[in-house]
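Please review the protein record below. Tell me whether the encoded fold seems credible here:
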Amino acid sequence: MTELAFEARDIVRHFPMKGGAVARAMDGVSFSLRRGETLGLIGESGCGKSTLARILARLDTPDRGEIRLNGRDIGQLGNRAMQPIRRHIQMIFQDAVSSLNPRASAGALVAEPLRLHGVVPRHKIRDRVAELFESVGLPSGLMGRYPHEMSGGQCQRLSIARAISLNPEIIIADEAVSALDVSIQAQVINLLLDVQLRLGLSYIFITHDMALVGVLSHRIAVMYLGRFVEVGPAQDIIQRPKHPYSRALVAASPVPEPCRVRDPSAIINGELPSPINPPPGCAFHPRCQLAQARCRSEAPML
């Protein structure tokens, strides 16, 4: 994991609201991702994780900043210029069933990107689809079925088959297992790990589950109100979190230790502030029991 594959520099995305207000969904996010690496992205609902995922997949355009794939800035490219690049960045959505066209069969859903990008001769597409089904543990007999005729786990495997069909370099998984039963989650997680090893993929894995992100990720980025507050090796974040918000997320994660005493300073109260009117200084200070006067005016370094 030495070669840099993907990089974001100072990504900003603001959404205009009624009355002239602005929602600061993304406010200066930077990170790098190396080949074969998994970056786990964690934070509360509403902190900007899915917005960042859409920007990185270029389903949305940042207001400012750079998104570099193999050194090339793709952040402001139009749809036509992005088309040949899209095969290198694929996305797995949280609700697999909703992300699949209900009028297309499972086989047609996986065949579609192969036809659009012309990576396989037309007379070999069906064979390639059968190979992809087998690679994600789906019998080829399901190729004629429709998404509503398949289980949630099968639909998620189908989404993974579609995502890897173009041999991408980056896969962005947005809550890819949160809607699945625990036993199916384990199967899909093992599948993602196996696919990564076989194909050398880089993952950006978005989740609410601190235990899961600790198992899957090489590094973890903790996000709060459109910014990263802490980034580091997975085990360092899990075992020795530095930022109070990271400590709160770790403390809130259930562990099989009934007698464990929870750190009182890791308890947070209240709701995530509105991105329309974010707090000055450290955005976490209104909910932090360790906040000092300087926290209200000075944003801490990452």
About this structure: The longest strand covers residues 4-16. The mean pLDDT is 89. Residues 120 and 128 are 8 Å apart (CA to CA).
